[in-house]
Amino acid sequence: MNALRVVLADDEAMVRAGLRLLIDTEDDLEVVGEAVDGEDAVRVVAATSPDVVLIDVRMPRLNGLDAAVRILSEAPDTRVVVLTTFDEDEVVDEALRRGVAGFLLKSSPPEDMLEAIRRASRGQGVLDPSVVPGVISRYAATPAALGRAAALDLLTPRETDVLRLVGRGRSNAEIAAELYLGETTVKTHLGRILDKLELRDRARAIAFAYDSGLISPGE
Predict the structure, then answer these.
(1) Is the pTM of this model over 0.70?
(2) Which residues cross the membrane (predicted)?
């Protein structure tokens, strides 16, 4: 199996060195490039075609979120995971709106960082556990958009059940057990849900479940 190709984008050399050391110890991961700012990140991604980019929010010349938009526009198959030292609501929400695959604090445990890369490469959303309650509460407090609520009609009853449990934070294995389905069947349903609702990954499916009113505040 080919190793997942990773680009590191951070203006601090020590951060990049630490991430490279962590990633290069894994047989299934490989750092193929480094960038010192947002403009550099766009260039390096174009030159190396990575599977995943780990990118800092605050960088010179072009910040991480703006760089992510350009990367996703020019290399739509590349997954972008945003890193930051700050847990700020507006940064988290803006990152998700920009279409990134995930959001992690730099203080995350090393094993979480490695798993985030693998999950992102599979098209699964990645949110630092510390920010999940805030994301859910903000979406739950927002009235459902009519267009999004109507979009639920595109789903079959079983797909709706799966989306509801995804929104509640259940893993595929937990959903399979609760609905008496095989885990492969759950993955198939989730793939169809993402396609029908034009959602990029699991993180946006969770947001959709609240934004559409499928899950009510307090559930």
Answers:
(1) no
(2) none
